[in-house]
Amino acid sequence: MKQLSVPSLLVLKLSVKLSLAMNPLLIPEAYIIGGQPLCSQLAGLSKGQKKLCQLYQDHMQFIGEGAKTGIRECQYQFRNRRWNCSTVDNSSVFGRVMQIGSRETAFTYAISAAGVVNAVSRACREGELSSCGCSRAARPKDLPRDWLWGGCGDNLNYGYRFSKEFVDAREREKTFTKGSMESARLLMNLHNNEAGRRIVSDLAHVSCKCHGVSGSCSLKTCWLQLADFRKVGDALKEKYDSAAAMRLNSRGKLVQVHSKFNSPTSNDLVYIDPSPDYCAENKTTGSLGTQGRLCNKTSEGMDGCALMCCGRGYDQYKTQLVERCHCKFHWCCYVKCKHCSRTVDQFVCK
Ligand SMILES: *[C@@H]1O[C@H](CO)[C@@H](O)[C@H](O)[C@H]1NC(C)=O
Ligand SMILES: *[C@@H]1O[C@H](CO)[C@@H](O)[C@H](O)[C@H]1NC(C)=O
Ligand SMILES: *[C@@H]1O[C@H](CO)[C@@H](O)[C@H](O)[C@H]1NC(C)=O
Ligand SMILES: *[C@@H]1O[C@H](CO)[C@@H](O)[C@H](O)[C@H]1NC(C)=O
After folding, report:
1. Which of 13, 93, 203, 250 has its CA 20 to 30 A from that of 217?
2. 281 CB less than 6 Å from ligand 3?
3. Contact between 27 and 170 (Cβ < 8 Å)
4. Is 247 helix (H, G, I), strand (E, B) or coil?
5. 323 and 235, same structural domain?
6. Which of 241, 264, 289 is the C-terminal boundary of a domain?
7. Ligand 2 atom nearest to 282, measured from its CA
8. Which atom, in ligand 3's list, is nearest to the CA of 79?
9. Using one digit for the tens of pLDDT, what is the confidence trace for 237-273?
């Protein structure tokens, strides 16, 4: 099995063709055959992860799907940025960028860890896993007394605990000398994994359904529900913008570089290295560069041509945009549309 030469995410290959980057662990490629994992074929799992894989084979598919959801969300959140959550090394989504302990790396760890909690918690509720079921979270104290608690909720408790065990296992098994750069990176990874999990947990909410005589809503059943993953992505993006630069102190702990700011909490993202320059392609840092990226001529933001193209300028093209239009609702029940095309200007970085 091919071992990736660079630290990269665990790549699960569902049906071998579809390559998914998994939780940001320094794991080479792994394979899930026909949707069912064979732990022996999951090359590069750490010792602890292999054990967990054997004990909880039915979980592996959801770990992979959760990580994929995380990555898709990452690419959505960064679609208008110079770094767009892609990589030079196409065998994994993040590839070489992950060698640097930058705030982008922090984000990818957090969002994949979040994706895994999300997927495992949901899989429990849906009865997909043999070792967990509906949430058994305690009834919230502020829930009105006549509302019922106990619809089948997302099992956040289980999802959190399992994914923490699995995703963090690899970091926890590493042994580095206290105070080394590697130990700083390990602490950074663990912190950001936890931040991702906590955001999912913080955003989970009580959801209720009405019962009672036609719409009277005299009776409600409530349960614990995970937030839409987009909200997790949005929240983590804010954490990315306010991520804290860290360094090791003399006792081998991560501390904030700028000590006048409040220390980051467990929900905040932390990083130890400055971001590389994402303007130009650089195989060492894993930057793809922004040449060929679409930009917005009128925007002054990061998606604007000035910033996106890093001052190199842009080319203008005309392209045909085909859209659905003149949609009509037909009884019953479908919508029929025409296709309209219009010519739009596109701006592409030089
Ligand atoms: C990765 O890129 C190489 C060439 O650059 C290509 O041959 C290969 O099919 C790509 N792999 C994937 C998984 O996209
Ligand atoms: C790539 O990045 C490294 C580290 O920042 C830098 O030293 C090197 O000069 C860059 N290479 C190119 C070709 O720009
Ligand atoms: C990210 O940008 C690169 C070029 O810099 C492009 O090839 C790639 O398709 C983009 N990825 C996504 C997910 O938009
Ligand atoms: C470009 O940016 C402007 C200003 O921010 C915005 O109004 C417009 O919708 C953007 N265009 C596209 C195609 O995203």
Report:
1. 203
2. no
3. yes
4. strand
5. no
6. 289
7. 1
8. 14
9. 999 999 999 999 999 999 999 888 889 999 999 999 9
